[in-house]
């Protein structure tokens, strides 16, 4: 008889979420990324997507093998390691929620966010290196907080706080910088959130507006996932962040391709609208095949 515990429920929710997301987005992944040119975004997309997927499949296999109650401990080699230090080292290399796996996954997702914010802020190299330097410091702090002697000193009740606290500070800085730049350049929230469909429009370009919108949603998703990492299960929080990041990149790539297919459509609409005047003072406005007569105007006007 299967006994349902809080931990097992969280595990099944995590597995179901990432496998379901992979199946419904596989078609878009093939269309938008498999045959595209090589880039850092393409590399980070696959790293984020398959790092989480492989680790969750590994968890499923490990859970199934552990339920076999192997008396020799063949499927869990750490059981045969008696010294405490050796056991901790073994757990770091085998547990999917250890620093060896969580920190690189967080680094990949935060790198994607940095590249999006960098695009929002004008692709200035100084900003890019500043953000990556901040990310390197955040990652280093997360690794240091995983040292057992420091954890004992801080007496943290929830071990997952070693990931949450540095990531929370990093996300707050990145989101504040992106929001400030967006409001300053675009002219406010209305210009960033509302989309204009007309040929004449002011404010940021549609693709930049979309980048800001999805980056904002992604930041909020990360901030909402951090409590799950701290209080429930780090793997569930990582899965939610990874799924959100995947959908963000797919949407941006799809929007970019649709814009490239329809490039010049707005300028063509403007070019098709022409003015003509004849010697009688009559004027006509032509838009495509439609002609609107204006005038004639009275003499001396």
Automatic annotation (TrEMBL):
Pfam families: DUF6533 (PF20151). Residues 16-54 form the DUF6533 domain. Keywords: Membrane, Transmembrane, Transmembrane helix. The chain crosses the membrane at residues 99-120, 127-151, 163-183. It comes from the Eukaryota. InterPro entries: DUF6533. This is DUF6533 domain-containing protein. It comes from Armillaria ostoyae (Armillaria root rot fungus).
